Amino acid sequence: MDSLQPIPRPAGLMQAGASLETHPLRLEIAAAAAQLVADGGLDYASAKRKAIDAVLDGRPPPRGMLPDNLEIDRALAEHLDLFDPDHAARVMRMRRVALDLMRRLADCQPYLTGAVWKGIVAEHAPIHLQLFHDDGKEVTLRLLNDGIDFEVDEIAHFRDGGRTRVEALQMTWRDEPVLISLYHHDDLRGALRGLPAERGDIHAVVGLLDAGSPEDER
């Protein structure tokens, strides 16, 4: 069963970021933030603020004690692996759905990113696909022609800390929440310069699924 298999995660996810000798206070804040993400569905920035309030009674953290998102990723992985018995099965199920949708949109250069790619899927976390295609209208028309309803929104561009926004489509597909963010093809070069743990193409997702499936399911 999926729930009994170790969850394959992108190379570098659990090692990247701060040293393993991180200060105990920084680790405590990261763990508190991870629990807020898992149990309350908060985004990382909001979870960090609430974790600081809880751990330090509203005082600002000392210099160097604010965990980065990679440390929260590690803490969230540990939390979900320990306390969510459905986590492994959820990751595998949503990766399969993501792969099927990526194959349908293969000519749009789809990459899986976010929680499902990383294998740290709290309840209600969406499948997040990034498409690198110069005609966003073609993508939306294709989805409509396939009978897939969606809502149009915007999210922060991955490259500049949110100063730029890109179009995003929110939908439910095969009973899973999906977020598709639309980028120009030229943005792909910048995406590929990022950390290996940040996103993966169809081939990479297949690799994670193969690594997580028992021999008799391959």
Keywords:
alpha+beta; 2 domains; 8 helices; six-stranded mixed sheet; 6 strands; Beta Polymerase, domain 2; single chain; about 220 residues
Layout of helices and strands:
Layout: H1 24-40, H2 44-56, H3 69-83, H4 87-104, E1 110-113, H5 114-118, E2 127-132, H6 136-145, E3 151-156, E4 165-173, E5 176-183, H7 187-192, E6 199-200, H8 202-212
Parallel strand pairs: 2-5
Antiparallel strand pairs: 1-2, 1-6, 3-4, 4-5
Helix pairs in contact: 1-2, 1-3, 4-8
Main sheet specs: 6 strands, mixed
CATH architecture field of the largest domain: 2-Layer Sandwich
Tell the overall outline: globular
Q: Helical percent range? A: 40-55%
Write down the oligomeric state. Answer: single chain
Radius of gyration: 18 Å
List the total number of helices: 8
Distance between the termini: 13 Å
CATH topology of the largest domain: Beta Polymerase, domain 2
Mean pLDDT: 88
Structural class based on helices, strands and sheet pairing: alpha+beta
One letter per element, helices H and strands E, the order comes to: HHHHEHEHEEEHEH
Low-confidence stretches: 16-20
CATH class category of the largest domain: Alpha Beta
CATH superfamily of the largest domain: Beta Polymerase, domain 2
Q: What is the count of β-strands?
A: 6
Strand order of the largest sheet: 3-4-5-2-1-6
Number of domains: 2
What proportion strand?
15-25%
